[in-house]
Structures are given as C-alpha cells and as structure tokens.
Design goal:
The chain has 167 residues and is mainly α. It has one domain: Peptidase M41 (Methane Monooxygenase Hydroxylase, Chain G, domain 1, Up-down Bundle), CATH 1.20.58. Helices cover 65% and strands 8% of the residues. The protein has seven helices and three strands; from the N terminus they run H-E-E-H-H-H-H-H-E-H. The chain has a three-stranded antiparallel β-sheet with strand order 2-1-3. Helix 1 crosses helix 6 and helix 3 crosses helix 5. The radius of gyration is 15 Å and the shape is globular. It starts with a helix and ends in a 7-residue tail after the last helix.
Length: 167
C-alpha cells in the first residue's frame, strides 16, 4: 500500500476514533492493515450504546443516541476530506454516509428530505474535526506506526495533544 493511501485510511479511522471519544463513546480499537483486497483496510470497533442492546422507551434519548452514532459514522470521511481534499467519495465516503443515514432511521434512497435531515449533523462533525485536526493527525500517525490502537492508546494521544488547531 502506498504511503498516501495508508495515511488516508489512518486518518479515516483516527477521525472515527477521536470523534467517538469526544462524544463519550468508548472504542475497543482502531486498526489499519496493508491488504487492500480485504473487505476493510481499516476498522474502528466501538462499545455500543445501551440503546442498541436493549432498546429504550425514551424517544428523546433514542434520537440523541442515533444522532451520536450518525456523527461517528460521518467522521471518517469528513476527517479524511479535511486532510486529503481529493479523497474518493465512492471508495471512502459513501459507506459512512449510508451508515449515518441508517443510524438516523432514514431510508437509503438519496433525496432532498434525507439530505436536509443529515446536514446539521454533518456541520457539527465538520466543526469537531477541524477543532481536533492535530489530535486526529497524531492518532493517524500512531496507527500507521503500530497498525492498531486500543482505547487507552487513543485516550493518551488525545490527552497529550492540544485539541484546538491554531491554524
């Protein structure tokens, strides 16, 4: 795998991991591999919210949880696009976008209503990614070096790196 492609994948997974952490979702691990023939060249695994295990009768909590998971889903491509503006939508962005729509309970067809529903969430994630650019880069660089980071690794890197980008 080329260095640029590996960096794109690392940034993608680092963005999922950092935004999950900022939204109080514990990750199990973030990892990348060198084999692009596999289903996923990178994966971030999470400890799922209670809502996905047992359901809830509180619609407000359910909506907040769904929005949180949609933000995490969108974070990968949004972060990748921040570092590599020419990133391929079909390869990297489409899956995140469809995962976010699924979390929000939106139908899968692309239409104006679904786009309007997801736009404010996308804007929030874009701001979080911009504010966290330095820490995303640090996590990505460590992912490239080690191939896998645990929750404790990601937390340490977040704690060690100033979050707000001064640029």
């Amino acid at each position: 795998m080329q260095r640029d492609e590996k960096f794109n994948i690392a940034v993608h997974e680092a963005s999922h991991a950092v935004i999950a952490y900022l939204l109080n979702v514990k990750i199990i691990k973030a990892s990348i591999n060198d084999d692009l023939n596999e289903n996923h060249a990178g994966v971030t695994e999470y400890c799922k919210d209670k809502i996905f295990e047992s359901g809830t009768k509180d619609p407000e909590y359910e909506q907040q949880a769904r929005e949180k998971w949609a933000k995490i889903a969108l974070a990968g491509f949004i972060g990748q696009r921040e570092f590599s503006p020419g990133s391929d939508w079909a390869t990297y962005g489409q899956r995140d976008y469809f995962d976010a729509r699924k979390q929000l309970g939106l139908h899968m067809e692309v239409d104006e209503v679904a786009a309007r529903e997801i736009m404010p969430i996308k804007k929030e994630v874009e701001l979080l990614v911009i504010q966290s650019k330095k820490v995303i880069q640090s996590v990505a660089e460590n992912l490239i070096a080690s191939g896998e980071l645990s929750y404790e690794d990601v937390k340490r890197l977040i704690d060690e790196t100033p979050r707000l980008d001064s640029n």
